[in-house]
Specification:
191 residues, alpha/beta, Glutaredoxin, two-stranded antiparallel sheet, globular, disordered C terminus
Length: 191
């Protein structure tokens, strides 16, 4: 990663944070809660595929980990941890994504730089980010929040205090604890 790209990303985030105080809001901010139905999404992934939340209903727990900006230091560490610690999700009924409001081409380059084997989703129009409450306007960067969505499409957990260096394992551990607390359906030998 070039120093120029890193510093431009950092300056963009600082500018965004300062400008949020002066930007006209798009209405009251969305505040999703545990138990709410997660807003459906259709977003392009860094792997060239399109992902729809509803496609996983009844099949997989979905992790949607929002981050502010590709190629910035904290976001690079967080997404790299998801790439390096993919084994934390082995044998779990989970699909996980990181997501930002960067363009698909930017996130494709970002995923390639990380050698990420999971899709990084892009929402440059910020429609999904607004629905999840991770932005409040069309100019915001996404907040670093993670949503864990159950098989029924409802939000199981929201992490608003992400620790970038341990985030993948923290999420996997939360899911393992959740699954242990739920009785397995009859005939389910995978847990």
């Amino acid at each position: 990663m070039s120093m120029l790209k890193m510093w431009s990303g950092i300056l963009a985030i600082v500018f965004n944070l300062v400008s949020q105080k002066f930007v006209q809001r798009q209405g009251p901010p969305v505040e999703l809660r545990v138990g709410d139905v997660a807003p459906d999404f259709v977003l392009p992934g860094s792997d060239g595929k399109t992902y729809r939340l509803s496609d996983f209903r009844g099949q997989k727990i979905v992790v949607l980990a929002w981050f502010p900006k590709a190629f910035t230091p904290g976001c690079t560490r967080e997404c790299r941890i998801f790439a390096e610690q993919s084994d934390a999700f082995a044998n779990l009924p989970v699909i996980y994504f990181t997501a930002s409001v960067d363009t698909p081409s930017e996130n494709k380059k970002f995923a390639e730089s990380l050698r990420a084997k999971y899709p990084i989703l892009s929402d440059p129009e910020r429609k999904v980010a607004l629905a999840y409450g991770v932005v409040n306007s069309q100019k915001d960067f996404a907040r670093r929040w993670t949503f864990i969505i159950g098989l029924d499409g409802k939000i199981l957990h929201i992490d608003k205090n992400v620790k970038v260096d341990t985030h993948a394992r923290d999420v996997a551990d939360w899911i393992k604890d959740y699954l242990k607390s739920k009785p397995a359906p009859a005939g389910d030998q995978n847990r």
